[in-house]
Structures are given as C-alpha cells and as structure tokens.
C-alpha cells in the first residue's frame, strides 16, 4: 500500500510488519470478492465500513469503485487497533485523496445511527470476532442498514457463519473465500446478498 503519510495501524497481537503482511493478504481476498460483484454488474454508490479503524478496507473499496462514497464507523475505543482515532482515520483518507468521498461516525456496530436500507453495501473486516457479546445484534444491524438486493462483505477470523444460520435470515451467501493465515487460523470472507423485500 505504501502511500506517504498513510498508516493503517498495528493490529492487536501483531507486529507492524505482521499487520502489513496480513493486510496484503486480505486485500487479495477482497479483490476476488470485488471481481465477483463486477461480474454480477453490481457497483455500489454508498458503502458503510463497520469497524473501519484507520480506513484500510475503505481504501480498498474506494480505489476499486470510483463512484462510491464511504461512511466509516468505529468506536475508536482502542480495542483491536493500537492508537486508532477518528483524526488519524481522517488524515489517512485525506492523504489518499478521498476527503470529498467519506463521512465518519463514532458509533457502535451493534447500534448503528442510520435508517433502514441506507447503503448499497456494508463491508467489515476483523471486527465482529472481537464483540464478546452482541454479535447477532451486529449482524442484524448490518442487514438492516443495507438495501434489499444490496451486499454485505463480511471478512473475519474465528467465526464460521454456517454454524449461525439464524444470523443470516433474510439474506443469502453468494460466495465464500477462505485462506489459511496460520497453523490454526483461517480468514474467511463471505459475500452475502440481502433478499428482495
Ligand atoms: C482489528 S481492527 C480492524 C480495523 C479495520 N477494519 C481493518 O481491517 O484495518 C478492529 C476495529 O474494530 C473496532 N471496533 C471494535 N468493537 C467495535 C464496536 N462494537 N463498534 C464499532 N467498532 C468497533 C475497533 O475500534 C477497531 O478499530
């Protein structure tokens, strides 16, 4: 990624180098999902990044979909990404030239300050596994704010969505990409489409 003045941060339990290496692998996985969306002739105009941190995933989305605007949501409470703050996220987005295409909300993904069907697409990476409680609430909020026939790109470690079918009522898993990150760790990206009304 390496753009001067841009720092997407250091993940909990990882060195700076490990965090960067992880992001490079995650970028490749998301790129496959973006190709799937393009093949499906889906081009989002409005995207919400849930637990956006310093904007790494937002950057992937905005660079791939030039018409899109993004809303970054995070509590910035320090869990998961050391030293993250809304000011640092904003500085990254400005350095990448996205100042006119982004909005920021300091909010909890389990209680989103948006009306129903506000976005064409929601994206999230490395966030929901950290929610000790309220994971189901976060899923239901993610679905609520996406419009019918919109998409959710849900990337995470540790959560096997198949075991939680009730999280996915009202939507359909279209693609699943899985990559081994370590001996016992897998990163899985689900491409989920919300059902029509
Ligand atoms: C490991 S970081 C991932 C950041 C970013 N998605 C990325 O891939 O670089 C997890 C992020 O989730 C945020 N987070 C954790 N719990 C949250 C919650 N309940 N609501 C909103 N954000 C939350 C943290 O503040 C942190 O920025």
Automatic annotation (TrEMBL):
It comes from the Archaea. SUPFAM superfamilies: S-adenosyl-L-methionine-dependent methyltransferases (SSF53335). Residues 47-150 form the Methyltransferase domain. It holds the Pfam family Methyltransf_25. InterPro entries: Methyltransf_25 (IPR041698), SAM-dependent_MTases_sf (IPR029063). This is Methyltransferase domain-containing protein. It comes from Thermogymnomonas acidicola. The lineage of its organism: Archaea, Methanobacteriati, Thermoplasmatota, Thermoplasmata, Thermoplasmatales.
């Amino acid at each position: 990624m390496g753009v001067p003045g841009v720092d997407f941060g250091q993940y909990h339990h990882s060195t700076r180098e490990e965090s960067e290496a992880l992001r490079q692998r995650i970028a490749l996985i998301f790129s496959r999902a973006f190709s799937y969306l393009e093949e499906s002739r889906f081009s989002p105009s409005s995207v919400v990044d849930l637990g956006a941190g310093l904007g790494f995933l937002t950057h992937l989305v905005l660079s791939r979909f030039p018409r899109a605007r993004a809303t970054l949501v995070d509590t910035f409470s320090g869990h998961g990404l050391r030293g993250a703050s809304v000011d640092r996220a904003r500085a990254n987005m400005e350095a990448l030239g996205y100042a006119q295409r982004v909005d920021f909300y300091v909010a909890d993904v389990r209680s989103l300050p948006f009306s129903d069907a506000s976005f064409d697409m929601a994206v999230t990476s490395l966030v929901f596994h950290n929610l000790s409680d309220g994971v189901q609430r976060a899923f239901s909020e993610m679905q609520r704010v996406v419009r019918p026939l919109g998409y959710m790109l849900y990337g995470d470690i540790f959560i096997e969505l198949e075991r939680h079918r009730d999280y996915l009522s009202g939507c359909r898993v279209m693609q699943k990409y899985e990559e081994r990150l370590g001996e016992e760790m897998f990163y899985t990206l689900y491409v989920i489409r919300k059902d029509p009304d």
